[in-house]
Amino acid sequence: MNIHEYQAKAVLAEFGVPVPRGKLALSVDEAVAAGESLGGNVCVVKAQIHAGGRGKAGGVRVCKSSDEVRAAASDILGCILVTKQTGPEGKQVNKLYVEEGLNIASEFYLSLLVDRESEKVAFVVSPEGGMDIEDVAEKTPEKILTVAIQSDTISAAESQSMAEFLGLKGEQLFKFADLAARLHKAFCEKDAAMLEINPLILTAEGDLVTLDAKFIVDDNAIYRHPELAELRDLSEEDPRETEAAEHELNYIALDGNIGCMVNGAGLAMGTMDIIQLKGQKPANFLDVGGGVTVDAVCEAFKLLFEDKQVKAILVNIFGGIVRCDIISNGLMEAIKTHPMNVPVIMRLVGTNEAEGRKIVKDAGLDVRWAEDLDQAAEFAAAAAQEVAA
Ligand code: GDP
Ligand code: MN
To answer: Relative to the CA of 52, which ligand 1 atom is closest?
Structure first.
């Protein structure tokens, strides 16, 4: 789960991490008042969306007067911001964060993540701050240092190696050690999956401050953090994925036109691959899982039927723990409110296969049966093309 920059900074501040003073604003007037209350000669108006790359897209504006704040807030609030990370459809800006302006001497990149290889929390740092780290990794990989933290707390040697790599000196080394320890603590205690500070800045006054913050919480640990669960912003998430999650379905929206319903993540991926092999693209990843109920299958079918992008539905069930009759009964429930508006291709094998087929056949549903996955994908691809034509 992703949270907003202003929320991430509030979490970090609880751990004593230095962040700029700032205020949330939901209207232009609030933004102007926020800028005035922060005082100082400069403030920064920042769009709050769950995506980075805002600076280059015009979503971060440095302002030197209340008039400038008013102009920036009017421009940004309510607009659809298209950044490198939002996709071409962009994201609507519903919230602004107004921060005090700081005198930036240098910008660095710093992130923490779970390094699967070493099974440790690792820091990734680079003196090339404020840039796309992917570009740095590609063009100048020598400017990136990864340090896996060996014990529960960060050692002096570990933080020193990072600070020196960033070119920090003297007193700044101690400030960095203190900052790194606080970030590491926040990351571990809040069960983060990723924490990215880009940029981390050194101010002209010699302080290290987190100027931007992206914080992703491990979804599997959210139950341990009601305080983080509260920060969820559903307006930032795909409503289909939210709906699916409520029914414990593993669903990810994609941009193709063949809706898939599969049991098991591996089979779901295999199904997506074979759809591509037949020249079409999946509209989603959907693993209904082992313990699925008729209700959940019904909801899954509704999601697919409601998706305007879906031109054909491929049901690929390898019945084991999942019984084929549960899938068929789910379909029967769904069509009570959502008539089958696109061709449905079913491949049902395994547990209760005969019952599953009988339910659909007895109801006289216009389902196309496939004997194996290859045939199912072929039928689905042909059906999708026909509908599209
Ligand atoms: P992102 O583009 O979505 O990653 O947004 P950031 O929060 O990283 O802001 C983009 C850029 O705006 C930063 O790299 C800074 O160069 C600039 N910026 C942000 N806050 C300030 C500030 O307080 N003062 C100045 N001068 N620049 C800032
Ligand atoms: Mn940034």
So the answer is: 3
Dist CA 258 CA 311 (whole Å): 6
What architecture is the 1-20+104-236 domain classified under in CATH? 2-Layer Sandwich (3.30)
Whether 328 and 360 have beta carbons less than 8 Å apart is answered as yes
Instruction: With cut-offs at 50, 70 and 90, classify the pLDDT of residue 237.
Output: confident
The domain locations on the chain are: 1-20+104-236, 21-101, 238-388
What's the fold here for domain 21-101? Dna Ligase; domain 1 (3.30.1490)
SS3 label, residue 37: helix
- Chain center to CA of 19: 23
Catalytic residue ranges: 109, 196
Domain topology for 238-388 = Rossmann fold (3.40.50)
Helix ranges (H only) for the chain are 5-14, 28-38, 54-57, 66-76, 133-139, 156-165, 171-189, 226-229, 239-246, 265-277, 294-306, 324-337, 353-362, 373-388
Mean pLDDT of 89-103: 96
d(CA 7, CA 4): 5
Residue 57 Cα to ligand 1 midpoint, Å, equals 12
At 130-156, the pLDDT tens digits run: 878 889 999 999 999 999 999 999 999
Q: Which residues contact 307 (CB under 8 A, 6 or more apart)?
A: 240, 253, 259, 283, 284
The two three-digit tokens of residue 61, written as one number: 């504006």
Residues within 5 A (CB) of ion ligand 2 = 198, 212
Cis peptide before 282 (omega within 30 of 0): no
| AA identity, residue 365 | L
d(CA 130, ligand 1 centre) in Å: 7
Give the end-to-end CA distance of the chain in Å, rounded to a whole number: 39
- 228 CA distance to ligand 1 centroid (A)? 25
Alpha-carbon gap, residue 260 to 351, rounded angstroms: 20
Best of 44, 84, 107 for a ligand 1 pocket test (most atoms within 8 Å of beta carbon): 44
